[in-house]
Amino acid sequence: MARNTTNPYDIDIHVAEIYDQIESGTEDVAFILRLAADLGSLKVLEPFCGTGRVLLPLAQAGHTVTGLDSSAAMLGRARLKARRLPDDVRPRVDLVEMDATCFEKWPAGFDLVILGGNGLYELATPEEQEGCIAAAAASLNPGGHVYLDSDHMEGVLEANWRQTGVVRGALTGTCADGAYVENTLETIWYDAARRLVRFRRRTYVTLPSGQGIERTFEQQKNPVSRLEVQTWLEQHGFTIQGLYGDRSGGPYAEAGTRMIFWAKK
To answer: What's the average model confidence in pLDDT over 197-211?
Structure first.
């Protein structure tokens, strides 16, 4: 599987609402602002921006931001939030519906590219993940920075990723209007040595009317290693200025789950 063709967040608007319920933290926003504190007002690009959880607070902090996402449902929520921003902030926000895996279409001229929220895990292969980093380099002005925030996996595919059977996925919950979203996944194939795994995912939305919406699709993931990401960054012209293990700036540890790169082009 060369790439994933289904966006799990665009199946129904209620899925985007559940995503917002689950992903509500602001620690990464605070950390980005801290890392960029001495860089002045920046032009910021966030591919896979989702509902604007990271991007919109950066606009409120004085930066000019552009978000890309293929999900109309996610961008719809982001646009609703943007309309609620103060009058002087809204003109600094540009939200573009496009397939962000078309890396050659990313706009250029930015000072900061954000690859956060485990976005690399939504890409199917190492080649696609490296292409994402190459696109970030092409979008940046000389001297610009990339913030890359992702879980990582060292060695072979971990045992819990190889388990058979159907399990409940994270995108499960009840929406404000009473709609219920249930998400399940089942491991159907893996290559442990290459750290590739493929899931069958099912999303079922029960609307307040009782009507059901169901979608089943396959999705492949490649849990990246620290060495993979570091190598790609360096090969595409970045100098790594910081490697952290959490969003408070703690040190990276191979045994930990998170890696955050701050790198300069």
So the answer is: 96
Domain residues for the domain of 21 are 8-154+224-264
Of the CA atoms within 13 Å of residue 125, those in its CB half-sphere come to 9
Q: Which helix (H) or strand (E) holds 114?
A: strand 110-115
| Residue 95, domain CATH | 3.40.50.150
Domains: count for the chain: 2
Main-chain dihedrals φ then ψ at residue 34, nearest 5 degrees: -65, -45
- At 136 the three-state DSSP class reads helix
Neighbouring-strand partners of residue 213? 205
Distance CA 145, CA 75 (A): 25
Residues 240, 245, 251: CA angle, nearest 5 degrees: 80
Model confidence pLDDT, tens digit, residues 91-145: 999 999 999 999 999 999 999 999 998 889 889 999 999 999 999 999 999 999 9
Give the distance between the most distant pair of CA atoms in the chain.
54
Same domain, 183 and 142: no
SS3 98: coil
Alpha-carbon distance of 201 to 172, in angstroms, equals 12
How far is CA 82 from each of CA 42, 63, 91, 98, rounded to the nearest angstrom?
18, 14, 10, 18
In three-state secondary structure terms, 120 is helix
Shared domain check, 177 and 79: no
